[in-house]
Amino acid sequence: MDAAAALAVFDERMRRGARPDGPGAWVERVGPVVRQTDPGGWNGVLWSDLEPAGADTEIAAQVRHFAALGLGFEWKLYGHDGPADLAERLLAAGFEPEDEETVMVARPHRVPAGPEPPEGVRLLPVTDAAGVDLVAAVHEQVFATDPARLAKQLRARLDEGDGAAAAVVAMAGDLPVSAARMELDPEAGFAGLWGGGTLPGWRGRGLYRALVGFRARIAAERGCDWLQVDASAMSRPVLERLGFTALTTTTPYVFCGPRGG
């Protein structure tokens, strides 16, 4: 894979040309910034093309926009974004960085099928509210996320009925032990893999790989040309073995208010 060419496609389709990721969201380009606003979901800057002379002014404009709506937000800073000192400028403006992740992509049809789940475990496609609650329960335990908020967002996406979202949960009897989600944008050609959380006692048994393979097949069936993951340090080696290529890094900078001093 030509990583530079793939990164250019990702930037153009999923950042500069981003579309809303939920029914209550809107995306707009304001000068050199593309941002999403969603009172009930994710808010943040998806892409920017800042010059050093005007960077601080543009950062302040985004802070004012979200503050006026009473919303917290994040600035998704990618490793190839400019200017070179953008991270320092965000810190000075009151943002706090979260963990750095690696943007990785693969062609869905080239991802090998995952291993069979361990004996007694089955993969259950999520199609109703009960399944959504199972996904939320796993994510709450693994990622300490708000289960009610995640369930509401995932249910809304599935209720749209346009195939733009999918989820799967691994069940050991009646116990959900692993779960993952996917956001699909066939028009852009990308399917984003999210979640992929497994309960501690069930890790190391191939469930993460099985969930990736399961979602890759759905993405291919629904006409997506690319799978994309913001991979943690733990996930990256597994994804590399499945044929994913690293393109760049991404770090969420979350606005926490102006610094004193």
Automatic annotation (TrEMBL):
Signal peptide limits: none
| Residue ranges that the Swiss-Prot or TrEMBL entry lists as coiled coil | none
What residue stretches are annotated with the N-acetyltransferase domain?
121-261
InterPro entries on file = Acyl_CoA_acyltransferase (IPR016181), GNAT_dom (IPR000182)
Q: What is this protein called?
A: GNAT family N-acetyltransferase
**Which classification does the entry list for the species?**
Bacteria, Bacillati, Actinomycetota, Actinomycetes, Kitasatosporales
